[in-house]
Amino acid sequence: MFLKNHKWFFAVLASLLFLHTGCSAPSSAQRELVVPAVWEKGHKLTLQLSLPQLNTRYCVFLDLRVSKEYPYDYLSVVLTYAPEALSSARGQPSTDTLWLPLLPQQALRSGQFLDYRLPVNTDGIWASDSVFYWQMEHNMPQASLRGLLKAGILMKMQENGEK
After folding, report:
1. pLDDT surpasses 50 at 48
2. What residues does each domain of the chain span?
3. What is the CATH code of the structural domain delimited by 27-157?
């Protein structure tokens, strides 16, 4: 009799442990947009991310999906970001101009496309607000850019000591 109850006890304990580990809070926020077929210089893509935790430092990555039609082995973008709406007059948003190499050996192949996850800010960005706003525009030599299909931002909570 004790053995049967003992088995049930361990089954219930294992289920509770599984539920606890299976329902942990997310440690990142991600959003991506479909880029226009012809992305004109000056056209800004706008993203809004709801972050899982406040007062935390986040590493930032740019996710890109590129087709064979993309003519360059790099991408230059201007990223503007702020913890409040970019149109807000409360504070100055931060702006970075990035030159990102798109090397095929660093891409993940997804059928006929190449997917990239490129570090933008590995020192981390302090998030004191629950929503973070991003704008992205290309800074390439030609005014019209083709072959870039999707662009997105991943903000991942920085672990202790991680860069």
Report:
1. yes
2. 27-157
3. 2.60.120
